[in-house]
Amino acid sequence: GALLVNERIDREELCGALSPCSLSFEIVVENPLELYSGTVEIQDINDNDPAFPSSQARLEISESVAAGARFPLESAQDPDVGVNSLQTYQLSANPNFALDVQTRVDGSKYAELVLEKELDREEQRELNLVLTALDGGSPPRSAHVQIHIDVVDANDNAPVFNQSTYKASVRENTPSGTLVARISAYDLDDGPNGDIVYSFSSHTPAKVRELFALDSATGELRVKGQLDYEEAKLYEIYLQAKDKGAVPGVAHCKVLVEVVDVNDNAPEVTVTSVYSPVPEDAAPGTVVALLSVTDLDSHDNGLVSDVNDNAPKASQDSYDVYVPENNVPGIPILNVSATDPDLGRNAHLSYTLLQGDTAFGHLFSINRENGTLYLLTSLDHEDQVEFSMMVQVQDGGFPPLATNVSVSVFVTDLNDNAPTVLYPHPNSTASYTDVVAPGTPAGHMVTKVVAVDADAGYNAWISYTLLQATDPSLFKVGLHNGEIFTARQLREDDAPEHTLIILLKDHGEPVLSTSATISISVAEMVKEVLTDLTDVAPASDPRRHVTFYLILAVILVSAAFFITMLSVGIFKCYKWRKSKELYNSSRSTTYRTPGPFHHIDAVRGGFTPPSFYHQVYLTTDSRQSDLLCKKPFTSSPLGSRQGTIRNGEPGLYHQIVGTASRLPTPAE
Q: In whole angstroms, how far apart are CA 254 and each of 181, 183, 295?
């Protein structure tokens, strides 16, 4: 079981710069059958010196270069890895330059000369420096290069790149000549001093120069060799732009090239035979061979293929969305989220809006790719409160699998409707006049303001306040019901006509309001009302006198009718009493019961019976006036009420009230 070295091992030959360097093997043990996997890691020793590409380097630096300028130097290469690789650089002592050692993304080191003191060609025409590269071995190994610097009169404008770092990505196995990136620099000088030549920086590794080519005139970086994702995933390329002046100005930039993996490696199947030939009496389950599958590609390119065996799964089965009414059209209101554990196209999800309980294609829209639900128009809570719909989430497999998600959109109310007055009607050209009798006590309900608010909830609560009145001390209004009462008893010196302005406010935010105007007349008899009404008739109507006589004729006919009915009643009463007396006398009864008293409706000039309830419907246009006379429901004055509903809504409404009678409410 001992594992022996068969020949001399050279880590740099086996693995190059790859670390760690390992060799894998498998050992099969029989009786009992066991399989062991092993790995041998080849450790590095410091057996290689750093090496520069050349023994001398030559730089031309203008005396006009300002302090702080940087000059990349050629990098040394050390095939060892880890601490045995190149670790640092050292520069011989001098008054003008310092050395700045930097690290690339792959961990390798490179050095730059930094000008600390400006050069003077008249004082010193050239400088000779020594750059030493050291690895991290013990003892360290080193390499040296002579740096010769010529100080010349310079071109006073160096090229400038439009960006310091360029980024590009290229697929592995890309054909030679494919464009990777195009760098660009400019120089403000004229003539040869402004002509720019592009080239690789001096410390660009040789491997990069083998894989990429740079056009010196256009700055186009193209693929030159064969890229392999499995060998290197990223290349850091340093380029420079130099003008053609006597002392050329130089600018530097960096290009990061990312290599994209391509499925260019087939899976490899390794079969290890451990039991061959197989006996015919081998028991079921006997191991015949061991197989392992590997793929050098990355991510999905290195996995076995997927089957569409999973339906999309939504983060929740249903959504409730609350949207304020009067919204801005086109806003997103919901993001339907779903996942699919499958891979590739089998996991690609699309979202579709299915028809709900109403035709809403013009109201809602969903983004097919990301499931964002948009509201296309402005909603109105008073029009519709709720919308229900289904969102179908479907994958891209064959056959496709789908999941349905229910979405309910609720339109919340905003206070966007002011109270609407139903009585008195706000759009009528005629005024509504209510009548109250002189001497009416405090607390008597005169009329009622009826209003509604199309909003909902707290936004629809209406409060009523007395905003303005002819006599503010005479009337008051109920805060929540709009009923108008007498605040005190009416006196003889009160004005005969009163105008009330009622303010109606809801409880929304902001508060919306409207107003209603109520006209109240203080009158005792029908004659007074008729006189007042003839005063407000249009003066320009030549037929107003005809209307007055027509009303008078109606009153006279009504009076004649009631007198006739009264006569009939008296005659009937007389006959009844006669018959009663005859009956009682025949029985020798000493007591007699008086007959019932009948209240007969009548219209008399300036007179009404105690419990008589009289309604007069008149308008300023006398051609549309009516006179209705009705007898009371009960003989009790306090209980007398009458409700009349008349089609055509009269322009002016007067009520003549007898003893202790009151006006009907709008509901009555």
A: 11, 9, 33
